[in-house]
Amino acid sequence: MSLLASFNSPINVVLVGASGGIGQALLHALLADPGIAGVHALSRSTPETLVSLVAQHPQRLSCDTIDLNDESAIATATERLGDLAPDLVLVTTGLLHDGGKMPEKSWRALETDYFHQQMQINALAPALLAKHLIPRMPTARRAVFAVLSARVGSIGDNRLGGWYSYRASKAALNMLLRCTAIEAKRRWPQLVVAGLHPGTVDTALSQPFQGRVPEGKLFTPAFAAESLLKVIDGLTPDQSGRVFAWDGQAIPP
């Protein structure tokens, strides 16, 4: 049974960030879905796990690299899609910590380069992907452009402070998605643009912070992937521009 029954089969997918923990789980879930015609996976590198999957699914999976720090590289990667018109675009990339650099607990820890890096990967890159991919998406049938966001990007839900760069970049992402949804509606009336909060997932991104996660709230990548696909399947055009958690609940701006 397809997790994306609301789409007109067969479904073509572009998955950005396919080498990450959630990205790989989504890729496996999509390839197991009979309604998926093909997946074009984009990632910073092509690890052996992706090469092996391509060998197993040569007719349904293709891979390419993409540099999210360079718009010309983003444009080139999308141009290599040829005539593909994706029904679903999933952007699963994100940056929370970088080596020894961790989220700021105070404004005293703010650094220009780290802040810019967070904004580039978490906010600007998804917006540029929308710029280059939404024009390829169908105008006369259901389509979804979804990006992994985070609950900590909600201004109204911020009661703890801290994590300045990450919070700011996710808040910026949510605003960019809202602007994109408003503009796209004029030509793509059936398109849904959405942010998705996967919860805390057992991946390298969350690993340094897992000790504080309540029991039962650390999700496997497979659970997160299935949950997010179910949320996507239930979204309607009037919900475009909003952010939703893994359980389908809307997250306040």
From TrEMBL:
* CDD domains from the UniProt entry: carb_red_sniffer_like_SDR_c (cd05325)
- Cited Gene3D superfamilies: NAD(P)-binding Rossmann-like Domain (3.40.50.720)
Any stretches that span the bilayer, and where are they?
Answer: none
Pfam family of the protein (one)? adh_short
Q: Which InterPro entries match?
A: Fungal_SecMetab_SDRs, NAD(P)-bd_dom_sf, SDR_fam
Q: Which domain of life is it from?
A: Bacteria
- The name this protein carries in UniProt is NAD(P)-dependent dehydrogenase, short-chain alcohol dehydrogenase family
Q: What is the protein's species of origin?
A: Marinobacterium sediminicola
